[in-house]
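Running this now, will post back.
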Amino acid sequence: MPLTSVQKDLSRLTMTIVADFSVPLPRLWDAYADPRQLEKFWGPPEWPATFLRHDLYPGGRSEYYMTGPEGERSHGYWEFTSVEPGHSFEVVDGFATQDGQPQEEMPSMRMVFRFETTETGSRLTTTTFFNSVAELEQLIAMGMEEGAKAAMGQIDDVLADLKTFAAERALETHLLSDNQARFSRIIRGTPEQIWAAEHDPELLKRWMLGPDGWQFTDCQVASSAGDTYRYAWVDATGENGFALTGEVLESDPPHREVTTESMEGVDGPPSLNEQTLTPVQGGTLLTLVSTYANKDLRDAVLATGMAEGMETSYARLEREIAAPA
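Update: finished.
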C-alpha cells in the first residue's frame, strides 16, 4: 500500500495525504489523467467509481458516481481551477445530484494534488481544504479518511498494469449506463494535431472514412458552438450511402467538444457526443462519451460495427499525423 502519512490540521482546516510509489512520475500522472484508470481506484472497493466526464484542463469538469453494495449511487464532481500538466492540479470537489449539479446542502472542498519525482519513483501529496471545522468533522464522520485510505490501497495494481492502457491498444468501448457508451483510444499525436485533423475538411476527408474503400460525398465541418455539420459517405462501389448531421453545442479547443448527432432520414432524437482530448504518455487520450435516447438505440448503433469503423479511422488519423508535411 503506497500510503505514507495522513495528517489533519484543525488550525488550517486541512487534511493532507502523502503516498509514495515505485513508478516514474509520468506513469502516476496518467493514472489520474485517464478516467479508465482513475475509476479503478478513486472509490473504495465497496463503492467503485464510474467517470462520466473527466476534463483535465483549467476550466474543465469531472462528473462521476460511486455505486454501493446495494446498487445505490453517490454522485460527485470536480471543477478544475488550475492544471500544471505532469505536476499538479487543483479542483473544487463536491457532492452532486443525479444530473451532475452541485448539492448545495452538502459541503464542497478545495483539493490540491501535487506530483513529484523521488529517489525511488514518485510521490503524490493531496491536500484537502475545508470551509470550517464543522464541515471537516462532518466529512470525517462520513468516512472520508477511511474511504481515501481504502481507495489508495487499489492504485498499485493499476500502476502495474502496463498493457490495458497502453498506447498501441485499439479503441476500447465501455458501457457506462443503459444509454451511454464511452469510446477511448490513445492517438499518437498532440491534442492540437488531432483537433486540427477533425476540423480541417481536407484532412478530415483523408482519415474519417471508416472501412477501406469508403469515400466522402459531402464534408461540411462545424467549428464553433452553434455551427452545424454534415458528413456523407458511399462505399467503394458508390452505393450504400448515408449521412450524419448535427450541431456543435460546446467548443473549447483543443480540449473538449460537445455535439449532437443524427443519421439523416432516421426518425428519433439525436445522440449527444462529448469528446475530450488529454495529453498522456504516448500521445493523446481521446475519450468520447455518447448518450443515446435509450438502451435499444445504443445497442442498435453499436451493433452496426461503429466501433470497428472508428478504430480504422483513428489508425488512419495516426498515420496522417505522422506523415511528413
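The longest strand covers residues 73-84. More later if anyone needs it.
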